[in-house]
Amino acid sequence: MNGNKYMQLALDLAQKGKGRVYTNPLVGCVIVKDNKIVGRGWHQCFGGNHAEVNAIIDAGKNAEGADLYVTLEPCNSYGKRTPCTLTIIKAGIKRVYYAVPDSNVSGGREILERNNIKVHEGLLKKQSRILIKDYLKHLKNKPKVSIKAAMTLDGKIATYEYDSKWITSEKSRNFVHKMRARYDAVLVGMNTALKDNPILTTHSKNLKNPIRVVIDSGLKLPKSHHLFDACVPTVIVYDLNITNIPKYLNREGIILSPVNIDAAKKDFSVIIKKLDSLSIKRILIEGGSEIIASALFSDVVDDIYFFIAPKITGGRTAISVVGGTGVKKMSESLCIKNMKVKKIGPDLLITGQIR
């Protein structure tokens, strides 16, 4: 069997991840030794092992001295997982054949060659580019950030005892479920996750679920929460100074993403840039009030979706939709452009652009 046939097998394997790996690319891998296939693997789900790692696990000791065929250049950076280049080097792979270079990868080929691994590029390149055309297009996109909030007529998202179920009607909630399918990720803060225990899915078998993102700086969220139910991958953004990682977070479907939380509190773009590095481009922020305020006043938000219910709760300590310090002068307020109003059942949906 020649190299093209091995790469075609890798392409066929890559298809098995369809519908489960987005925003990552579809990737397949085959390991060959003495003209026999000793390992097969593909990227099975977002946040899971890459194709090369799964193939090396499948090959076991047979990986040493073998050839590796993979549809996309092996990664060389610490993101959701250890770099594939490091795994390939440790396994003792002799030669690497990849079809397409990855513009999101820096130095993958170089580090392999520095470790005396022969690298070849271009087998079935055209077919492999077709396989990952959505991924390549996605990489060129700039992040788009939206804010969705449900509130009472007097601007409250929860009572003074933090009761928030339900503010808006079932029609509005169903509208939001469909909205989520248009985004790569839905983001909430730790307080919202802790008190509301949200699922953050589309609640539909026919719609794509977004990745869930929670900002949990101290990794305090308990393992019993819905965000850890493994039905959808969850990215946990936490303080890079945390070294004691709870064991229940080291499993499939959980992606740990450390950031400088002090810097992020001053500038929410730190969070957006981190998610962008994970190929998460379209982000829907759903709370809470401090997260919404931080995002708005860090100039990272493109548009808003404010659902307003015909209810008044009052209460000086009830939670307002936008927290933070606020502005000193009315002239410093954020101005909403192209504002539109739509009636959804008994509620109003106000949309508008910020930049």
TrEMBL record:
A GO molecular-function descriptor: NADP binding
Q: Which reaction is recorded as catalysed by this protein?
A: 2,5-diamino-6-hydroxy-4-(5-phosphoribosylamino)-pyrimidine + H2O + H(+) = 5-amino-6-(5-phospho-D-ribosylamino)uracil + NH4(+); 5-amino-6-(5-phospho-D-ribitylamino)uracil + NADP(+) = 5-amino-6-(5-phospho-D-ribosylamino)uracil + NADPH + H(+)
Any idea where the CMP/dCMP-type deaminase domain is? Answer: 1-110
Looking at the record's lineage, which domain of life comes first?
Bacteria
What's noted on cofactor binding? Answer: Binds 1 zinc ion.
Annotated residues for binding of NADP(+): 150, 166, 192, 196, 217, 288-294
Q: Which residues bind substrate?
A: 164, 180, 200, 286
Its biological purpose: Converts 2,5-diamino-6-(ribosylamino)-4(3h)-pyrimidinone 5'-phosphate into 5-amino-6-(ribosylamino)-2,4(1h,3h)-pyrimidinedione 5'-phosphate.
Any idea what this protein is called? Riboflavin biosynthesis protein RibD
